Amino acid sequence: xxxxxxxxxxxxxxxxxxxxxxxxxxxxxxxxxxxxxxxxxxxxxxxxxxxxxxxxxxxxxxxxxxxxxxxxxxxxxxxxxxxxxxxxxxxxxxxxxxxxxxxxxxxxxxxxxxxxxxxxxxxxxxxxxxxxxxxxxxxxxxxxxxxxxxxxxxxxxxxxxxxxxxxxxxxxxxxxxxxxxxxxxxxxxxxxxxxxxxxxxxxxxxxxxxxxxxxxxxxxxxxxxxxxxxxxxxxxxxxxxxxxxxxxxxxxxxxxxxxxxxxxxxxxxxxxxxxxxxxxxxxxxxxxxxxxxxxxxxxxxxxxxxxxxxxxxxxxxxxxxxxxxxxxxxxxxxxxxxxxxxxx
Length: 344
Prior knowledge:
Residues 166-266 form the Methyltransferase type domain. This protein is α/β, with parallel strands linked by helices.
């Protein structure tokens, strides 16, 4: 798997280089800074951070060279072998439609960056968006992450025998399904939430007969108590690859801490670094909406040490980060974080 992952990353770096070169955002003999490159490409302001992450990734591996704030090509970059995507995605355990969709996105990248149309529009053309986004998470690495998170949920105790679970950003239910399987023998009150009724509606249709299930909209950036989540009402909060969407992470973690009693558990999964393949694909969904403020940082993801500090500041103790950096599964850049609320 790791060989295929490395090949996919190199291919995606080649895609970035190809876009910059073929649009003449950065011609072969030119030296330009990030602002000039975005201007030449015609990047929409909300997507400018994506191109800056491209430049950082290309510089890190030596495809681009720095000269002060300016960047240039030390040698002509090789064209990426986009036709290899179906093989690579298959080896990584993704459904076949993900390779087709990524190929479409690559063909349209300049137009997507210019906001001539959106990735959401392209996803809708690919069929049911819940199924499309679910396919993005159906791979060997994410399956292992969700299984590990679910294993850690299984032994969580509840004072009265009824385990109260709040899932944030449940989306296409990939984390949900793993956790519900692990908790199938437990008496539970499980509240599935998401910011979009598209996902809560789909979850309700699929899980309406599951004992103890509730479904509700919830915005990470608003008061949880104003959205029906009472203080100290939960034993376990689950968040599968969603906390990076919080506009104000300290506030969001504070809301999670407030809804848990002392000793309550937070289990979440997150990427800890850029993924070149996703920078040419799904990371476009991380750009702010048209009517929202621009991102304050180009960094979409945080390293484990930064998570430890953020959790500590919010009243949590970080008990475990899995997998360890030395384990093969760590290559995908995803981690499970296991934290416990501590007494203030």
